[in-house]
Amino acid sequence: MFEVKPYPELSWSISRHKTMLQCLRKYAYDYYASHNGWLSQSDSLAKQAYRLKKITNLEMHFGSVVHDLIYQTIQQVRKEGTFQFEEAFTEEVRHHLNRGFIESIKKEHLWMNRPKHFTMLHEIYYSQQQKLPEQKVKKITSRLQNTVKNFYASQTFADVLKKDRMEFIDAETFRFMKSDGVKIFVVMDLVYKDTSENKWIIVDWKTGKSSEEDRNQLALYALYLKQKYDIESLDDIIIRNEYLVEGTYVEHQLTEQDLINVQNLYQVSMKEMQRYLEDPEKNAPLPLQQFPMQDNPRICAHCNYQELCFPDSHV
């Protein structure tokens, strides 16, 4: 039976670490204030923070839709040996993007009550206009054409089509490893083993730009895989970033030092997170006011929590 707990479980992930570095107030809303906000008996702050947490933006929504459809396409190849062509894939992405836009402008009342089940775009919510910025629409339209074409031409999709030589592991689920009792979440797009080469391949699809944190994320994936499947050498693990907008891919051969670096990052990051706990045993946070706000207006302009930090920003 589902148990309602007053505080969330303390866990760690690269995205949580990045949020903490970006803005501690956003971190507090994301990981503490929004907890239980989906329950009817929760207080108004928890409900509001949870709702705002679920806002997305056009680029993120596009990336999420593309990731989901890539996953479905690969599953179809694995199970049925067939797949839909580029045109059908492109149309399906358009359909989901259009649906997200319609939900944002016409179904705000439904989203308010069930934010997990409806899309709300940041560009619509905070502008209170019934249209998206023209430049963004042009950018996503161009990105869509390139992304779909480059997915079908990618090294990874070529590997998927040789499925008799590939042993796939279901990766599009939450997985975690534990360190000192804390769950470290690892979410991988695709994992498979090339049985002819005896190599493990971890794939990360990118629909945006590369980031400095990419290497740490990859090292975390490799560490997880090495432990989970008792892989002796890092030389047997290939990590591949597929940059779908540019149509390029980069393969990384990680070293033991990369694994040490990500473990050190985790330890330093966790120590910083624990500074903001009133009761570490319960994972009870300090009062919200003790999480400093960001003072960079450019970062605030793209944040989901403007309404909470600056109440006059959304009327």
Largest sheet properties: 5 strands, mixed
| Percentage of β-strand residues | 5-15%
Secondary-structure element sequence?
EHHHHHHHHHEEEEEHEEHEEHH
Overall pLDDT metric: 93
Task: Tell me the overall shape.
Answer: globular
Describe the secondary structure blueprint for this structure.
Layout: E1 11-12, H1 14-22, H2 24-33, H3 44-53, H4 58-80, H5 86-106, H6 108-113, H7 122-125, H8 134-152, H9 155-161, E2 166-169, E3 175-179, E4 182-186, E5 190-194, E6 199-206, H10 214-228, E7 237-243, E8 248-252, H11 256-274, E9 277-279, E10 284-285, H12 297-301, H13 306-309
Parallel strand pairs: 1-4, 6-7
Antiparallel strand pairs: 2-5, 3-4, 5-6, 7-8, 9-10
What does this structure look like?
It is a single chain. The protein is 48% helix and 15% strand. With 315 residues, the chain is of the alpha+beta class. A hairpin with a 4-residue loop joins strand 9 (277-279) and strand 10. Helix 4 runs parallel beside helix 8 (134-152). The chain starts with 10 loop residues before the first strand and ends in a 6-residue tail after the last helix.
